[in-house]
């Protein structure tokens, strides 16, 4: 439940004058961006270097008979040239990436010159492995600099990368390799997180039994024992020694795909979200500059993993396109101790820090002393992303981490949006704890009721976008119809976000969370249907229903109702077995927090599971169940309540 806090934190006046935009400028630019999108984006599109300049800017249609989204469609460019080569002359010796290892004794600084060398070499290794323009390359790497090199190398030769988060299981990896028909996987021997090893190469070996590939490029990270398959697997460092360090960036059309990123929805298998080259880069770099008020000399740290869209847009593409110094962290917030984030901020003089509410809540729980023993004087701006931030966590972040002097940008966006859509701008927007505040340039949010009627003024309903912005996803890989169905069919002529939202009397937006069967666990999106299908794939399970429930640290926890096959014993040991099973099927992020064995699930007479009731019981608010008379067997509800796991 999102609280609407009344407090307002005005823009500090010195910041308003120093920042890229103050409020008057925001209002003026915003107005132009929606009144004249062609003029506005035609001008701002020039922030990236084009090989052949565009003459057309916006060509988009939300008509559900013909959804088509094109930006800068006749321009050509190369993303890696924009993120690397164009900075060589002015900032070749400036750090591009500061890499901080899992172990605090390990770090590396990679200048733009070095980045250029590494990306060229990696691109040539890909060529040598037979990867060509348009091919899909699956990246399953830990948070090491090679992840950024690999992404930029793909972009350089026009290959489309599909990054799979290192926490996903072999099955999930196989499904993502198979779905985009990728023939090459880039991985590491093992990953390292919080002192523990992650068997990445072994997972690739399992995945490729189901989804075979021609080549596996292995980066040596830990030196751990792995097996290499002859004729398929190569060590990256050996191949790198054999190739030249010059690779000409390929000329790409603005609408050529840059990457695919799989994300969960309310039904079926994860969707391959497709982002393209020109509009995406313009939008990622522009939002990075304005939202974080990025200035020359900033040390910018986004704590996400490159396996998620945040890592794509705000660790790699946005910051590097802007010639920034971006910090990349291999580890976890609590290793070796709960002050790791703050130690790293001091060690590298971080000025802009961007993380997720779940991390903030966890670190808040560890106590203020862990923060206070570090100076944190370098920090000037804080950011939040991934889920609604509760005012309590916001206030702690502001006062204790930011020492009351750093604005917080609460950035709302999605894998599908490519970049931030609703957010404060630090020099322009007065802050309200818990509100993502106002739309970015060119973004036209609206709130609709269940019938799709646009609601005015202070109101609450479902969040849609009325028109396109350059960073918007273009299609679902290989399934444009699913793209149309998922996003443009609920409300005709509008992009449906899947989120609920309130707007207050100041026009500020307050995201209330997903309104579909997607849950948000520690800022990670999970389809309840995926967890259900993992559960029912266990031989002892006959039926399962999964819902979210409020969780102090994770935002939402996973609550699973499980009906067993006839004759199976509902034991604690079996609960553990089911958790292990889901982890193996999907990955640790999908582990159910609570499992309730249910002899029956509440169903309508036509057999549809009534999730509303299951959600209420999981929230432990079963006194407001509403009408249960339409249930086929209303008595199942009493059993569910009696045996609920989430007793207040
Ligand atoms: C969903 C998108 C965008 C990168 C990380 C997640 C929720 C995201 C906020 C925010 C409230 C937020 C929404 C959205 N969400 N940011 N600042 N306030 N909710 O990307 O996995 O595609 O998830 O995350 O529910 O729909 P994602």
UniProtKB/TrEMBL annotation:
GO terms for molecular function: acetate-CoA ligase activity; AMP binding; ATP binding; metal ion binding. It comes from the Bacteria. It is an enzyme of class 6 (ligase). It catalyses: acetate + ATP + CoA = acetyl-CoA + AMP + diphosphate. ATP binds at residues 386-388, 410-415, 499, 514, 525. Residues 85-465 form the AMP-dependent synthetase/ligase domain. The modification N6-acetyllysine is found at residue 608. Mg(2+) binds at residues 536, 538, 541. InterPro entries: Ac_CoA_lig, ACAS_N, AMP-bd_C, AMP-bd_C_sf, AMP-binding_CS, AMP-dep_synth/lig_dom, ANL_N_sf. It holds the Pfam family ACAS_N. GO terms for biological process: acetyl-CoA biosynthetic process from acetate. Acetylated. Deacetylation by the SIR2-homolog deacetylase activates the enzyme. SUPFAM superfamilies: Acetyl-CoA synthetase-like (SSF56801). Residues 26-83 form the Acetyl-coenzyme A synthetase N-terminal domain. Residues 530-608 form the AMP-binding enzyme C-terminal domain. CoA binds at residues 193-196, 310, 522, 583. One of its GO terms (cellular component) is cytosol. NCBIfam families: Ac_CoA_lig_AcsA, PRK00174.1. Belongs to the ATP-dependent AMP-binding enzyme family. Catalyzes the conversion of acetate into acetyl-CoA (AcCoA), an essential intermediate at the junction of anabolic and catabolic pathways. AcsA undergoes a two-step reaction. In the first half reaction, AcsA combines acetate with ATP to form acetyl-adenylate (AcAMP) intermediate. In the second half reaction, it can then transfer the acetyl group from AcAMP to the sulfhydryl group of CoA, forming the product AcCoA. This is Acetyl-coenzyme A synthetase. It comes from Roseibium aquae. The lineage of its organism: Bacteria, Pseudomonadati, Pseudomonadota, Alphaproteobacteria, Hyphomicrobiales.
């Amino acid at each position: 439940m999102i609280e609407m806090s009344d407090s307002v934190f005005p823009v500090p006046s010195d910041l308003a004058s120093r920042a890229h935009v103050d409020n008057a400028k925001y209002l003026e630019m915003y107005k132009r961006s929606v009144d004249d999108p062609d003029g506005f984006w035609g001008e701002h599109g020039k922030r990236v270097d084009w090989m052949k300049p565009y003459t057309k800017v916006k060509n988009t249609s939300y008509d559900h008979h013909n959804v088509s989204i094109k930006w800068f469609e006749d321009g050509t460019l190369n993303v890696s040239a924009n993120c690397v080569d164009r900075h060589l002359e002015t900032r070749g010796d400036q750090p591009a990436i500061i890499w901080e290892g899992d172990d605090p004794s390990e770090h590396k600084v990679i200048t733009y010159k070095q980045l250029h060398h590494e990306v060229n070499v990696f691109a040539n290794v890909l060529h040598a492995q037979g990867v060509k323009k348009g091919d899909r390359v699956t990246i399953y790497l830990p948070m090491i600099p090679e992840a950024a090199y690999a992404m930029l190398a793909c972009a350089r030769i026009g290959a489309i990368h599909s990054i799979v988060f290192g926490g996903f299981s072999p099955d999930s990896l196989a499904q993502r390799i198979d779905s985009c028909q990728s023939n090459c996987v880039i991985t590491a021997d093992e990953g390292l997180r919080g002192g523990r090893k992650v068997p990445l190469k072994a997972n690739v070996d399992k995945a490729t039994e189901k989804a075979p590939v021609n080549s596996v490029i292995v980066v040596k990270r830990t030196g751990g024992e792995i097996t290499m398959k002859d004729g398929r697997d190569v060590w990256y460092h050996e191949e790198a020694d054999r190739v030249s360090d010059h690779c000409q960036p390929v000329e790409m059309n603005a609408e050529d795909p840059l990457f695919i990123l799989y994300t969960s929805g309310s039904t079926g298998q994860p969707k391959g979200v497709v982002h393209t080259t020109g509009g995406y880069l313009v939008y990622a770099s522009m939002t990075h500059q304005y939202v974080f008020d990025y200035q020359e000399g900033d040390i910018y740290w986004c704590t996400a993993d490159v396996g998620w869209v945040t890592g794509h847009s705000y660790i790699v593409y946005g910051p590097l396109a802007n010639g920034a110094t971006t910090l990349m962290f291999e580890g976890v917030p609590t290793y070796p101790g709960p002050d790791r984030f703050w130690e790293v901020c001091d060690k590298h003089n971080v000025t802009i820090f961007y993380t997720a509410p779940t991390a903030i809540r966890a670190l808040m729980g560890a106590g203020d002393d862990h923060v206070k023993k570090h100076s944190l004087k370098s920090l000037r701006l804080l950011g939040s992303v991934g889920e609604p931030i509760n005012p309590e966590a916001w206030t702690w972040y502001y006062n204790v981490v930011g020492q009351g002097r750093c604005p917080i940008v609460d950035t709302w966006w999605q894998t599908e949006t490519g970049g931030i859509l609703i957010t404060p701008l630090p020099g322009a927007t007065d802050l309200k704890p818990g509100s993502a505040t106002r739309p970015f340039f060119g973004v036209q949010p609206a709130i609709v009721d269940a019938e799709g009627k646009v609601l005015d003024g202070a109101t609450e309903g479902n969040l849609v976008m009325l028109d396109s912005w350059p960073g918007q996803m273009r299609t679902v890989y290989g399934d444009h119809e699913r793209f149309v169905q998922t996003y443009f069919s609920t409300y005709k002529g509008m992009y449906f976000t899947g989120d609920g939202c309130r707007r207050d009397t100041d026009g500020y937006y307050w995201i209330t969370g997903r309104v579909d069967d997607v849950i948000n666990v520690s800022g990670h999106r999970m389809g309840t249907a995926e967890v259900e299908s993992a559960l029912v794939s266990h031989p002892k399970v006959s039926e399962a229903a999964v819902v979210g429930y409020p969780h102090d640290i994770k935002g939402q926890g996973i609550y699973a109702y499980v009906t067993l096959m006839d004759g199976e014993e509902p034991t604690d040991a079996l609960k553990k077995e089911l958790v292990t099973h889901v982890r193996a099927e999907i990955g640790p992020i999908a582990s159910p927090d609570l499992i309730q064995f249910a002899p029956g699930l509440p169903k309508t007479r036509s057999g549809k599971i009534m999730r509303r009731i299951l959600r209420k019981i999981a929230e432990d608010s079963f006194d407001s169940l509403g009408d249960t008379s339409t249930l086929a067997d209303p008595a199942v509800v009493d059993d569910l309540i009696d045996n609920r796991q989430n007793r207040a």
